[in-house]
Amino acid sequence: MSLVVWHPRTRRQLVLLDVEGALRRVAAVPLGDRQFLVPEGELQTYPGASDPRAVAGCVARLVTPETVREGDLVPVAGEYRRVVERGHTRAGGRRLLLEGYGPWVMAFDRVAFRALDSPQPWNAPGADDSPRIPPYARCVTCEGATLSAWVRHLEWKREQILAQHREGMSLDRLCAVYEVPPDVLRACLARWEPEIASEAG
User: Fold this and answer.
1) Model-level pTM?
2) What count of other Cβ atoms lies within 10 Å of the Cβ of residue 81?
3) Are 48 and 60 in contact (CB under 8 A)?
4) Which site from 34, 93, 162, 192 is most exposed, i.e. has the minimal number of CB atoms within 10 Å?
5) pLDDT of residue 130
6) Confidence of residue 72 (pLDDT cuts 50, 70, 90)
């Protein structure tokens, strides 16, 4: 079960895992090892929740890179953006083309919204999907001759990342926004800065 619920008291998104009488077994989003029980009356279910992030006419579920579909709304950089096209990456995850944003790699399970009348099943991978590869599996840095999918993903946003970094955005925050390992982003920044300096000179 991957239905997302809203906990108004703590203002958290939770994933409903199981039902135990009047209690609900849930886990926090993003998913961790810790599960806990919450009284049913303390939760609100999407849609119709008072969560300001809820999207009208849609239901919220936890999706994987395998089960995300075209038309789903996924959160990227603080906004829900519609998936226009899906593709594959070599380093795991799912390369998505997002409306008004461009290419982006979905590496983790995340909350997504899908229209209530959508015929697409939530948890069934498509026939074209390969077996799941864990995030960051066999990830390489840009020091080698072969660039990883993570590095190619960052190249799309190079100027934007450099501008945000120069404005004082921390490495941890940039990694959270672009969802890449710190060592990959650090290596890219180290490579880009000298290139920018030489282009300006």
Assistant:
1) 0.58
2) 18
3) no
4) 34
5) 39
6) very high
Residue 102's SS3 state is strand
What distance lies between CA 15 and its chain's CA centroid? 15
Q: Under a CB-based contact definition with an 8 Å cutoff, are residues 98 and 84 in contact?
A: yes
Segment 59-63 mean pLDDT: 87
The alpha carbon of 132 is separated from its chain's Cα centroid by a whole number of angstroms, namely 15
Instruction: Decide the pairing of beta strands 44-45 and 110-115.
Output: unpaired
Q: So what's the pLDDT on residue 122?
A: 62
153: enclosing H helix or E strand:
helix 149-156
Tokens of 40: 């049913």
For residues 55 and 35, give the distance between their C-alpha atoms in angstroms, rounded to a whole number: 26
